[in-house]
From TrEMBL:
Protein name stated in the entry: LLM class flavin-dependent oxidoreductase
SUPFAM superfamilies xrefs: Bacterial luciferase-like
Name of one Pfam family that matches: Bac_luciferase
Domain named Luciferase-like: residues: 1-300
InterPro entries: Bact_Lucif_Oxidored (IPR050766), CmoO-like (IPR019949), Luciferase-like_dom (IPR011251), Luciferase-like_sf (IPR036661)
Entry's family note: To bacterial alkanal monooxygenase alpha and beta chains.
Superkingdom in the source lineage: Bacteria
Species of origin: Metabacillus rhizolycopersici
């Protein structure tokens, strides 16, 4: 099983944003040592509890401090941007870090309505125009347009020896159909979706149209997981993330991920207890054996080529330890091994 990391660069209640971003770099380094295939960083806006609003900036820092692991966006929120500029940015990263760059493409707002308006005057219009925007981005990444295209004479320099690998990220049938139509790899965000991912991925596989000779459907399943030495400890660590998700829904999450002690003191009403119980069902929480079993089951059920794991904890050490235990159980790699 191939494993990868999705990082949202969460800020704990005791951290500064700078410290959180530095911990993201340390996580990428640990992931590389542990044998994870890729490290993706998410894009969020107007969200005090998440540190990364510009993945392309953080990726340059992480690329300079790692050597092998693939790095990329999870995702570039394309409706906000001109595809030409996006291609320039990721071509430059691919020039600096050869054969290591992924460009995940998404259409979600990634923040408040006010932030969307601040970023774009016509966000919803651009969401509807995503298929055409993706076409333009792919042409820029490929380095050529049809001769009669308005951008035929425009090049997204610098052109790297190996282009960034494009992905479509999503949680719906619409995103899967777009990936299939364009012949792109697809990452399904199970951790943030109640949709029937099994059916969505199956339709993607069945309708996949290759862009290049020999290309096959390629699926990443993204899940939320927290692993510790014991089930009890994993549940205790996960409480911080669960309470924080509840706080965010109530508009109270601006202080960042609460400590375990803070989370235990949080008073829940019955509705919130039910919400938390449902949230737990969409997470994998347990010791290494439990996590491995559940990941294997999900990979088989969803027909995923790769599992990408997002882990939010209060303590950066607990987060790296979670990824370490999973890697030791599934990839059989110890932290610090070559």
């Amino acid at each position: 099983m191939k494993l990868s990391i999705l990082d949202q660069s969460p800020i704990s209640s005791s951290q500064t944003a700078k410290e959180a971003l530095n911990e993201s770099m340390k996580l990428a380094q640990a992931g590389e040592d542990l044998g994870y295939s890729r490290y993706w960083i998410a894009e969020h806006h107007d969200f005090p509890g998440l540190a990364c609003s510009a993945p392309e900036v953080l990726l340059s820092y992480i690329g300079a401090n790692t050597n092998r692991i693939r790095i990329g966006s999870g995702a570039v929120l394309l409706p906000y941007y001109k595809p030409y500029k996006v291609a320039e940015v990721y071509n430059m990263l691919a020039t600096l870090f050869s054969n290591r760059i992924d460009i995940g493409i998404g259409r979600a707002p990634g923040g408040s309505a006010e932030a969307s308006n601040a970023l774009s005057d016509n966000f919803l219009e651009q969401v509807w125009g995503m298929p055409n925007t993706v076409n333009d981005l792919l042409h820029f990444l490929d380095g050529h347009f049809p001769e009669d295209h308005r951008y035929a004479k425009v090049t997204a320099s610098p052109l790297p020896e190996i282009s960034p690998e494009p992905w479509i990220l999503g949680t719906s049938k619409k995103s899967a159909l777009l990936a299939a139509e364009k012949g792109l790899s697809y990452a399904f965000g199970k951790f943030m979706s109640d949709n029937d991912g099994v059916a969505i991925i199956q339709e993607y596989i069945e309708l996949f149209t290759p862009r290049k000779l020999g290309q096959r459907p390629n699926v990443i399943l993204t899940v939320s997981a927290i692993c510790a030495e014991t089930n009890e400890r994993a549940k205790e660590i996960a409480l911080s993330s669960l309470i924080w998700s509840l706080q965010k829904e109530k508009g109270e999450g601006h202080l960042g991920v609460p400590s375990i002690q803070e989370a235990k003191k949080y008073v829940l009403n019955q509705t919130e207890k039910n919400t938390l119980s449902k949230a737990k069902q969409n997470m994998i929480i347990g010791n290494p054996h439990v996590v491995k079993q559940k990941l294997n089951e999900l990979q088989a059920l969803y027909k995923a080529n790769e599992i990408m794991i997002v882990t939010i904890t209060y303590s950066p050490k607990d987060r790296i330890r979670s990824y370490q235990l999973i890697a030791e159980e599934i990839l059989k790699n110890k932290y610090g091994s070559n």
